[in-house]
Automatic annotation (TrEMBL):
Designated name of the protein: 3-isopropylmalate dehydrogenase
Species whose genome carries this gene: Scytonema hofmannii PCC 7110
Keyword Nucleotidyltransferase: no
Positions bound to Mg(2+): 226, 250, 254
GO BP annotations listed: L-leucine biosynthetic process
GO molecular function, a single term: magnesium ion binding
SUPFAM superfamilies found in the cross-reference section: Isocitrate/Isopropylmalate dehydrogenase-like
Positions with a binding annotation for substrate: 98, 108, 136, 226
Keyword field: Amino-acid biosynthesis, Branched-chain amino acid biosynthesis, Cytoplasm, Leucine biosynthesis, Magnesium, Manganese, Metal-binding, NAD, Oxidoreductase
Subcellular locations according to the entry: Cytoplasm
PROSITE patterns, alphabetized: IDH_IMDH
PANTHER family documented for this protein: 3-ISOPROPYLMALATE DEHYDROGENASE
Length: 362
């Protein structure tokens, strides 16, 4: 009997509707090939939700997300809503969704596709073969720790304060996501911290080390964050899966992603313990090219592949989609953001059609 999944689609704003349409077409092909039945339900978020309901994350949308197996999000935001107060801006919808679904783990792969190697700003021999997954803690650490704020001291001077704090249970749950994710890859996990200076990192390191006993098949190493930043640029191929806290992860995941050089190709996943995960491209709503059939839909398609792998445990289907993306690039298909001489310039829809053709031939 076919496996059934309820998928919430959040097209959002800008290029969102154009790129999510391609991902849905891809999932329909996946459904046929792997005997999976996807039931899609669309909901509003971001600027389009503000226009329709006055709120960036309407209650109905949140309920639909909660009642699904996974959420596929495109992107939110645009010039039109930039002057609204911050709690009514499109971004508030995204932050609200992440916090309401308790998404504490953010997974960002940085994979160099051989066909796009020249898009990287680093030398070919440094980046060729890079395939890294950064697992970042998303709801704790210095962005949320108390006390925080700008206070006035007894001498009348202002003092800004943030607190980096992690409890054992917070370290435990992100650690488990990272060990499990590394099992779906090459079983090598590097935990990044600043344990030479920070007590919070000392607890992090000792707890991750303790957790490793439950994952004897995964090789665990530790690295200080300053060294990790250096090593990512010097010899990125030494990394497979990286796990780290919120602040370090914020910085390192951007650095790792840029090894690949192309924003239209980068997917991400945000996972919680029991609620559905949210799968979305790293890029924004690209209002400058919205509605012009110029967007690269591949980050959205690769986000759907992450949904299959990490949200629905359908690794073979995820492999199939990722291979299809490689194959369509191999045949020379390129959108404007990744075009190079001699390649075939396609719009968003035509790239989708070329990918579907490849997948159907597989
Ligand atoms: P952006 O990622 O939308 O665009 C940056 C540049 O990359 C633009 O030139 C754009 O045309 C290009 N680009 C992005 N995605 C592309 C794609 N798939 N194909 C081809 N080109 C692509 O970032 P920005 O311009 O800083 O932000 C635009 C809006 O998106 C803002 O309102 C911002 O708040 C929002 N935003 C949303 C998210 C999200 O939904 N997660 C993330 C970042 C920015």
């Amino acid at each position: 009997m076919a496996q059934k999944y309820r998928i919430t689609l959040l097209p959002g704003d800008g290029i969102g509707p154009e790129i999510i349409a391609v991902a849905v077409d891809v999932l329909k092909v996946v459904g046929q090939k792997f005997d999976i039945q996807f039931e899609f339900q669309e909901a509003l978020i971001g600027g389009s939700a503000i226009d329709a309901t006055g709120e960036p994350l309407p209650k109905d949308s949140l309920e639909i997300c909660r009642n699904s197996d996974a959420v596929l999000l495109a992107a939110i935001g645009g010039y039109k809503w930039d002057s609204l107060p911050s709690h009514l801006r499109p971004e508030a919808g995204l932050l609200g969704l992440r916090s309401q679904l308790g998404l504490f783990a953010n997974l960002r792969p940085a994979t160099i596709l051989p066909q796009l190697i020249d898009a990287s700003s680093l030398k070919r021999e440094v980046v060729e073969g890079v395939d890294i997954l950064v697992v970042r803690e998303l709801t704790g650490g210095i962005y949320f720790g108390q006390p925080k704020g700008i206070f006035t001291t007894e001498t009348g001077e202002k003092r800004g304060v943030n607190t980096m704090a992690y409890t054992e249970s917070e370290i435990d749950r992100i650690g488990r996501v990272a060990f499990e994710a590394s099992r779906k890859r090459n079983r090598k996990l590097c935990s990044v911290d600043k344990a030479n200076v920070l007590e919070v990192s000392q607890l992090w390191r000792s707890h991750i080390t303790q957790l490793a006993q439950e994952y004897p098949d995964v090789e665990l190493t530790h690295m200080y964050v300053d060294n990790a930043a250096m090593q990512l640029l010097r010899a990125p191929k030494q990394f497979d899966t990286i796990v780290t806290g919120n602040l370090f992860g914020d910085i390192l995941s951007d650095a790792a992603a840029m090894l690949t050089g192309s924003i239209g190709m980068l997917p991400s996943a945000s996972l919680g313990s029991s609620n559905p995960g949210v799968f979305e491209p790293v890029h924004g709503s690209a209002p400058d090219i919205a509605g012009q059939d110029k967007a690269n839909p591949l980050a959205q398609v690769l986000s759907a592949a992450m949904m299959l792998r990490y949200g629905l445990n359908q690794s073979a289907a995820a492999d199939y989609v990722e291979k299809g993306v490689l194959q369509v690039l191999q045949r020379g298909a390129r959108t404007g953001d990744i075009i190079s001489p001699g390649m075939n310039l396609l719009g968003c829809r035509a790239m989708g059609a070329a990918l579907i053709q490849v997948l159907e031939e597989e």
